[in-house]
Amino acid sequence: MIDRTWEKYADGVLVESGQHDITWDDLRSMRDCELRNSDWRFMSDQSPSEEWVAYRAFLRELPQNFPNSANDAADAWNEYEKPEGA
Question: N or C: which terminus of the chain carries fewer CB neighbours within 10 A?
Answer without folding.
Answer: N
